Amino acid sequence: MKKNPSRLSNKEIVLQTAASLFLTRGYQLTSMDEIVAVSGVSKTNIYYHYKNKVELLLAIVDRFIDRYDRQISLVLSQDDWSIPDRLERMLRLFADQQEQQDILGGCPFLTLYTQTAHDSPEVAAKIKAFFDRQLSGVERMLENAKSRGELPADMPAAAAAALIVSSVEGALFVAKASGRPQLLEELYLGLVSMLMLKL
């Protein structure tokens, strides 16, 4: 008898359940027993795949990083798209995640980092590397746009990249905390204006 390919494996069910609990309830407040209860997967099976909660956390962080790295890299590499189009798509990636799940801090990386950085230097290092790649990618995108004349030649690309990335993260948190999801749209308009782009 063949397995149903659409049926999730126990490992996948545990990852999805733990990610949801960590992001909506909090890493520190989520026990392995709660993951067992919510997932319906036995404790023995969970510990077969993950020897402890930190190992499970690392797998979740790796999964988020891999997904966002691929999606953001794809958006940033679209040289035939205008800078406003790429900024809008990048913001949409984060906004869609926020709409799909009630993440405590508005962003999965901010939420997981603030809850676990002191306990897991490895998680902190992975998230730092993710943001370093994001900053470099946005800076390269802006430098390319400057060389094509889409942006002013004297615009400091590194500073603008830092403004964009930190603004996106801050906006995700403020949109969540204030209950104003439209803040991301306002951020987009503000960033485009500050970069002196024509809509």
UniProtKB/TrEMBL annotation:
InterPro entries in the cross-refs: Homeodomain-like_sf (IPR009057), HTH_TetR (IPR001647), Tet_transcr_reg_TetR-rel_C_sf (IPR036271), TetR_C (IPR011075)
DNA-binding region extent: 31-50
Keywords from the UniProt entry: DNA-binding, Transcription, Transcription regulation
Domain of life: Bacteria
SUPFAM superfamilies for this protein: Homeodomain-like, Tetracyclin repressor-like, C-terminal domain
Domain HTH tetR-type: from-to ranges: 8-68
Name of this chain's protein: TetR/AcrR family transcriptional regulator
Native organism: Paenibacillus chartarius
